[in-house]
Amino acid sequence: xxxxxxxxxxxxxxxxxxxxxxxxxxxxxxxxxxxxxxxxxxxxxxxxxxxxxxxxxxxxxxxxxxxxxxxxxxxxxxxxxxxxxxxxxxxxxxxxxxxxxxxxxxxxxxxxxxxxxxxxxxxxxxxxxxxxxxxxxxxxxxxxxxxxxxxxxxxxxxxxxxxxxxxxxxxxxxxxxxxxxxxxxxxxxxxxxxxxxxxxxxxxxxxxxxxxxxxxxxxxxxxxxxxxxxxxxxxxxxxxxxxxxxxxxxxxxxxxxxxxxxxxxxxxxxxxxxxxxxxxxxxxxxxxxxxxxxxxxxxxxxxxxxxxxxxxxxxxxxxxxxxxxxxxxxxxxxxxxxxxxxxxxxxxxxxxxxxxxxxxxxxxxxxxxxxxxxxxxxxxxxxxxxxxxxxxxxxxxxxxxxxxxxxxxxxxxxxxxxxxxxxxxxxxxxxxxxxxxxxxxxxxxxxxxxxxxxxxxxxxxxxxxxxxxxxxxxxxxxxxxxxxxxxxxxxxxxxxxxxxxxxxxxxxxxxxxxxxxxxxxxxxxxxxxxxxxxxxxxxxxxxxxxxxxxxxxxxxxxxxxxxxxxxxxxxxxxxxxxxxxxxxxxxxxxxxxxxxxxxxxxxxxxxxxxxxxxxxxxxxxxxxxxxxxxxxxxxxxxxxxxxxxxxxxxxxxxxxxxxxxxxxxxxxxxxxxxxxxxxxxxxxxxxxxxxxxxxxxxxxxxxxxxxxxxxxxxxxxxxxxxxxxxxxxxxxxxxxxxxxxxxxxxxxxxxxxxxxxxxxxxxxxxxxxxxxxxxxxxxxxxxx
Length: 784
Fold this sequence. Notes:
Number of helices: 15
Strand content: 25-35%
Shape: elongated
Mean pLDDT: 90
CATH class of the domain at 449-468 and 554-781: Mainly Beta
Strand order of the largest sheet: 10-11-13-12-14-15-18-19
Structural class: alpha+beta
Low-confidence stretches: 1-19
Helix content: 10-25%
Radius of gyration: 30 Å
């Protein structure tokens, strides 16, 4: 059984790049290792076309070097530059042919989202190739990401568009991050640096340390806003660097925390079972691993000596892709692996001051231990409480692919279905990493800034509580009120114009997909006086100038109190597009209903939720399936408890995750500044003036459980709107004023948000944070 650990393997593509460094040669073909050489699976360009190579040709020799494995192929290509001579031997239809020509180079990489900059950095006695993606429209100072790949000696230049690493890099570049890749020693266009295969782990750490130093030297990078992303063995290198350098965050996926000795033995147990080995042979193979790993990793015996002692051990060593001439396994030297054993990985995590995101795929048959990933989180949080979280991805393997069960992932890999694995890339992994990174940077930036303040905007006077406000960018927004009036601004709230009015309507909630398409919900009749409009939801396609009733299937919806929009990314003909899911809930005073659209508002359906609750006030969907609803247990306020519901199937079913024990209570509004931390306002309508304590509910596990936290002791301070910038810094609007916390709700200070602040919306646009609050008046959060 051959083990495949902590590695990202693809069909080997022989091309390398350059700019100021001389361009390295490119064969211009994709190949895969077969018994007698490398079979061509795809002709790309350049050298391969000039030589008239064909698919299914088997390359056996390049310039006198027999290419029987990846190491020999790398050796044959190692020092070749564009213009050098190539003499290549191939097998075509079982006949040997010799072809001659000159090497061509690969075109420079391009991107739909960024400028690709080719640079270099000094390493040992030579230069390493550096590839930078600088987003279009980059600002003077930008957040940045250093990417650290797995252990293989493979170039990071000109990755295919479906390559998982390319997808991760693109996700960060699209979100405004400068990204930097640095080639490992001897790879790509790097010159006068040792071959990658000869470098040990300490060399590799130094290699990526050079990359971090280069990233920090770029004039357009904010050195306080750097994230390191490490995959596989990169998850071991990353903490070694972050332990010694200041960075804002570290993301690792598919890595390990235990000693390499332990890991190898567990690997045998996991993978031999997946390979279908019978139970007795399976157990014996694991026992054999004890001796081999003890002698190699602990006693540091040469593999050549171990191989002489036992036929069974020699068989195991051969499964390590053992090169007896060079003393290497899996294409790296002995010290590389032994240093992984010797380095205390958890010590590096202990010394990492940055925030940490650990990602684990449940179908990963290489970095298979969830316990290891949990151990990293526990270690970070032990020495720096609250600094690390774990994200788990069902059916996702080592290559970020949503490939099914661990057995299915293993089978696809063994069958060399690499293209299929690449196409099954789980976008949630990269998107979550970017989202988490932005949250970390926003929290850091917010903590570094002076206290933000709210300023009252000049709007048309209104005697009561106005309910909702919505912005699609820093300039364009709308607000509504109970007189059926809609106002719009195009200058960030500096001036407002009434663009629509419907007499007899009570406008309760508003949300927009973009500057043209939006939705407006009404509270309906029989709750507020003089309300005649029975249409629960309207749609506009002209920015709010005109509105049409929304048609829907299902039970009648009397009114809505909240709308939430989820934009789900997907790849549409190679380009990122979005599926728009819209959720509406209501209402105050009952009945409880939900409206949903999964096609951007083209079609709608409704669902009664009276079996789950009696009133609905707000909804927050994290994605199309998972979300939270703010509710009340009874339509009679004297009997009602505050209620929070959670769904994992898009609202088809709901689970009660919180219910207060006091009468006269409802929930009201919700705010989730991060994926795990959220807050809900709890309203008390108790007529007894001695009941003074006002409360919030807080979750730290994504809404699965909630605990109550005190706000203020004031019977008249009924709370409404809530909005958090970070998990610690947020605001609450009450009947009388507003309150601010900067420590996650432990303490509160009174601030001016006007009376009856019903809705607080906080927005992030790359590096900027802005916000608006609406009640009797409209307030704007000053962006320092």
